[in-house]
Amino acid sequence: MSSPPFKIRPARIRDLPRITTVCLAGLPDDPTFDFLWRYAHEYPDDNYFFWLQRFKDDLYDPKKTFLVAVESADRHKDEESGEPRETIVAFAVWERNDTASHIPHLISQLVRKEFTRRDGDVKRTAAFLEVMDKVHAKYWEKKYAQNYHLELLATHPDYRRRGAGTLLSQWGIDQGLAAGIDIGVEASPMGFRLYSQLGFTLEETLMVEVEGDDAKLKVKVMVYDKSKESLKA
């Protein structure tokens, strides 16, 4: 029996540059990225820098589990560890919610006070965050207060449709089912099909809009249908 093409493990601090590279290779295909970071092509250094700071926050947030999917090259060994050299091909950030308290991104807050970000659209970002805050309060703090919430998932384009995204998504589904709690995600247009195939159902569709701006963004709130598990049993 052949071994699976990828394995997942917790992210480490030294993984963050590669994770950021995967993010910036994978997310621009998604309408959400274009909507928020419309000036990323003009300020690529800003885009890389602020994503890197965001990932540092995620790595040290006690409510979150930061995972990577890696491909091992058995013929090439790491000089320090002697282990097969790995290539990070995808990553996911899962949030475990069991209280109404929300831990702020402290590193990002400090960085924003020090530096002016030029790659994003300020009004669109503000409108998006307002919608996402409402979603978090309504679903992940109240209606489904005990949950595993998939905050972010990205796969490098060279490794798409090979199972890495499914593997990372299934981790959170398995954790939620084992704990007897709900599993949720806000699906982007790119991710909606994957999550539907995995067993998530649409709860609500919201629209992010800015007055005087023709661009709009759909946010689809999805929750895993646990009733399907009883049918499998």
UniProtKB/TrEMBL annotation:
It comes from the Eukaryota. It holds the Pfam family Acetyltransf_1. Keywords: Acyltransferase, Transferase. Residues 77-223 form the N-acetyltransferase domain. One of its GO terms (molecular function) is acyltransferase activity, transferring groups other than amino-acyl groups. The keyword Zinc-finger does not apply. InterPro entries: Acyl_CoA_acyltransferase (IPR016181), GNAT_dom (IPR000182), Trichothecene_AcTrans (IPR052523). SUPFAM superfamilies: Acyl-CoA N-acyltransferases (Nat). This is Acyl-CoA N-acyltransferase.
